[in-house]
């Protein structure tokens, strides 16, 4: 009887640990699915495009200022 109780305790402990690991993996899966959803991918693409546009505009302004300074000096 004692051995049976020990086996039950071991199984219960292992089951709890396995269930906890399963829940963690499910959480990770859901996070990955959200990260790679079409809406998420589209949002990240739009953010990258906006950042590129900003950087391009800033470079254009810097170039314009440099050309303007050269012309004014001349």
TrEMBL record:
Ranges in coiled-coil conformation: 15-62
Family label: Belongs to the VPS37 family.
GO BP, one annotated term: ubiquitin-dependent protein catabolic process via the multivesicular body sorting pathway
Keywords: Coiled coil, Endosome, Protein transport, Transport
GO cellular component: ESCRT I complex
Protein name: VPS37 C-terminal domain-containing protein
Keyword NADP appears in the UniProt entry: no
